[in-house]
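To: structure subgroup
Subject: Chain for Friday's discussion

All,

I'm putting the inputs and outputs inline so they're searchable in the archive.
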Amino acid sequence: MKRSHGYNAGRSRGLKLRGRVPITRQLADFATGETVRIRLDCRVPGGQISLRYNGRLCKIVGRQGRAYSVELTDIKKSKRFVVSARHLQKV
């Protein structure tokens, strides 16, 4: 059988979740300057960033539509991403 070549193929060992996404997670509200952890939810493919940043701490910079603009430091460089609230967790 041919292997899948999807976005998370071969890298999703830590992303195995089942069932529905909790409504509290979907409607989570974060304030600017708050520290959050990136927790990718494989049940919701939209609004994800690369699996490389899963589990990293970041700071909320602002809001962009229904998603949040977050900033994290990768080695010595500051990076900004737009992430859906479903993939963020309060610390």
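Points worth raising on Friday:
The two ends are 42 Å apart (CA to CA).
The mean pLDDT is 86.

D.
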